[in-house]
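Wait, can you check?
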Amino acid sequence: MKILLCFGTRPEAVKLAPVYWSLKQSPDFQPAVLVTGQHREMLDQMLQVFAIQPDYDLAIMVDRQPLADTTARALTGVAAVLQAEPFDFLLVQGDTQTTLAAALAGYYAGVPVGHVEAGLRTGQRRQPFPEELMRRLTSQLAELHLSPTTHARANLLREGIDPATIFVTGNTVVDALLSIAQRAAQYSTPLVAELQRQKRRIIALTAHRRENWEHLSDICHAVRHIVRTHRDVSVVYPVHLNPAVREMVLPALQHEPNVHLIDPLEYAPMVALMQASFLLLTDSGGIQEEAPALHRPVLVLRQVTERPEGVIAGTLELVGTDPERITSAVHRLLTDAEHYQRMASAPNPYGDGHAAQRCVQALRHRLLGGPRPEEFIWPV
């Protein structure tokens, strides 16, 4: 059966790559890949890392393109592919404009849609923006919901989704991470290797989400305080290529000697950076899921998270964007060894490395009547 996987951003590529290869190894399915190019440079890096050659590339992005234009171009592009070639099923992932546009195109074309990482919710329409509404709307369009955790499934059940269509798989990001982590050290950048040689405590920082743009100055203020207070700490910040982010971050931090502003890293070097880090500061969703597998504490630069399992498990702490909260939480991790160890050793609530296999089994169950897969259960 012909399965079309549609994605456009780096996180989508990371999380669908294990599903693609599991489908590729199955005699029951013939996968094809459509990319929208929503994150052009970073997407191309992921395709190379995971050895995926797209069958269709829409190349939808232009500089500073409004959200509506991105969504519209993705919708018409995916619709044209579905009109030109028949597919038995369409798989999307996560909560991007590509996700929603592709799911809507599938609905219009009568092609059933499966949603990988279904059911994440903050309960606040604009936190994060626009992702919260993207994933809610995608859930209404999808016919197969591949939820990473039982908490995500509970969110879908509260919204009236048919329980027979929901499968708890674990998160495929853990599959991707584990496939890279064993050899990630060879991808370490010279900067990270030098900081390790100097026995610096590295804090990896990522901050780029749209709802945090107005708070980037506060985050940068906290970073300056951290490196000036803790002289053995170096912050490594892969700065997003979005001009709106770079125009705020570069002037604020480029003259701090212990803050290293670098271009976004490819996936394997980013995994190597996370492995080398003492802790992580992030507003990213994926890093919240990846860090528990690497036993690294994460301070989340957001007011709410759609991934509360990590907070419950103790490996994540929500600190928001207030400089005092950020610096206080970092100081505690840097100075309280017992607290650090509790966070670093917390169980991984997001996956066990077999999520992609469960996704394929769920597809087989849905399309071919195979047995329902055993669900991922968080080991609490």
User: Anything to note?
Assistant: The mean pLDDT is 93.
